[in-house]
Amino acid sequence: MKAAIIDGYLDEPAALGVPPYISPQVRYAAGALMYNDIEVKYFTIDQIRKDDLWQSLDHYEYIIIIAGTTVPGHYLSGKPINIDEINKIFKLNSSPLRVLGGPITKGYTLTGGKSASILKDLLKDNFDYIVEGAVENFLLKYPINDEWDIKERESYDVINKIAPLGAHIVRQHPRFPDVIAEIELSRGCDRKEGFCSFCTEPVIYGLYKERELKDVIEELNSLSKNDVKNIRFGRSSNFLAYGISFNDDKINTQIFEDLYKEIHDKFDLIHTDNANPNFIIDNYSESQKIIETISKYNTSGDILSFGIESFDENVLKKNKISGSKESFIKAIELVNEIGGKRDENGIPKLLPGINLLFGLIGESKRTYEVNKRVLEEIYDDDLMLRRINVRQVMVFPKTYLSLTDEKHKVNKKEFKKFKEFMKYYDHKMLEKVFPLGTKMKNLIVEKNENYMSYSRQLGTYSVICGYPKEQELYTKYDGVVVDHGSRSLTILKHPINLNNLDRKELSMIKGISKKTADKIIFNRSFDFLTSEQKENLKKIQG
């Protein structure tokens, strides 16, 4: 028997599966099928679009689509599946068993600021099963017995049995080996005092639960044996809480030392994602030790993403978000102190990233002013933030936000003004994090547009790098930072020979206009440049 898994991509509060990431869920689905000796063919939705494969799947016994974006995002080289595409695939390939799984089964929207729609109302009759529970459980049981339940929650006993098998499909990813395997450590939220008003993590995954270290390592070993070289501990709502279930509900510093020591020499990239800043402050000395462990063994450019959401304490309280402005800043300071050290290329080892969310209960014009003021304080205190995500909330069924009658609507005028402020702020922060002359190794070309190519390093929330010439997609090269945008870097290929740069390349360097570039080329000299321009050229040649 044969099954086609279509990766429609997912983006959740605690998991990312948009290229170059590959989510745990699609690997688990593959592992469950392979456990039953069913041959698996893996496709991304982008492959379906590009190669016009819409009606080429009718000869499979199973078609499984896994998808769902429960947080809004912008993606460079992957676009999540939409409802019309799901209907199209299932309608044109009606012979196989048609199964839909993933977070999309809890509600559908692709846009921030909107409420999710109920999926069954949108799919008409073009499906056999919408698996609201763990799709791997359904796929493990359906081929062999009638004991399946489309609402059955995930089981780590099942996942630990099938995850090593599913590692094999990473080889079928169109970007292999330049992919990042998202690694699951836990599900649900470790908080005990209630959940954030908007968060889908406890709604979809229930009470907090963790995988044992030996099972995580077994999956990592299987990925390594399949030549996967890049991993991220992203499938966890609070990475630093991992191991509390095995340590009397207390922060577990030893499990991080054991984890990183075991795997640090098996992968080229080891990155992280989510962390709760309030948890860090409540467990300050232990968190300090864990952050030191991460910074010792990880790959530079790593991020601990803080779900701050707002610095307005009224908004924090009304939306059940733990922490305060003071605890947030103290956590940012700690990560900077330990992880802010730069590698030989000038890239910090580990920095905080923050999420700011709008459309929450209790928001006012003051909320925007408070957020601006605190961000400016962070910058003025010479602290670094690796990235700041500014989003409008998605409202999903069964979250507190969907059930309350309290007002929660984005002030479009203030939100637009705040986004304009962020262009200026992000530019300043990028200058601080990636100063002129920073080396960016192994950039991968992901997009060409308007005679520019856009590239990223593999990594967590990697910064986009623009180069002033189109290049072949997915080729690699080394670059050096020569200027900064609001959300991206301008780079030239490293090493730089100033005498070989053309007009366009010269004019991309900070402080060099097109007119100045013409003068350099005409005179074949840099002698007339100002001291500041000469200093910039010196930095990028270093």
CATH superfamily of the largest domain: tm_1862 like domain
The third-level CATH topology of the largest domain is pyruvate-formate lyase- activating enzyme
- Please state the average pLDDT score: 93
What proportion of the residues is helical, as a percent range? Answer: 25-40%
Please provide a written account of the structure.
With 542 residues, the protein is α/β, with parallel strands linked by helices. The chain folds into three domains: 1-175, Rossmann fold, CATH 3.40.50; 177-433, Alpha-Beta Horseshoe (pyruvate-formate lyase- activating enzyme), CATH 3.80.30; 439-541, no CATH class. The chain contains 19 helices and 21 strands. It has helices at 24-35, 45-50, 83-92, 120-123, 135-141, 156-166, 201-205, 213-225, 253-263, 277-282, 284-297, 313-318, 325-339, 365-380, 400-403, 412-433, 503-507, 514-523, 531-541, and strands spanning 2-12, 15-16, 21-22, 39-44, 62-69, 97-101, 129-130, 180-184, 186-187, 209-210, 230-235, 269-272, 274-275, 302-309, 350-358, 388-392, 439-449, 452-456, 464-467, 476-484, 488-493. Strands 1, 2, 4, 5, 6 and 7 form a six-stranded mixed beta sheet that branches. The radius of gyration is 24 Å and the shape is globular.
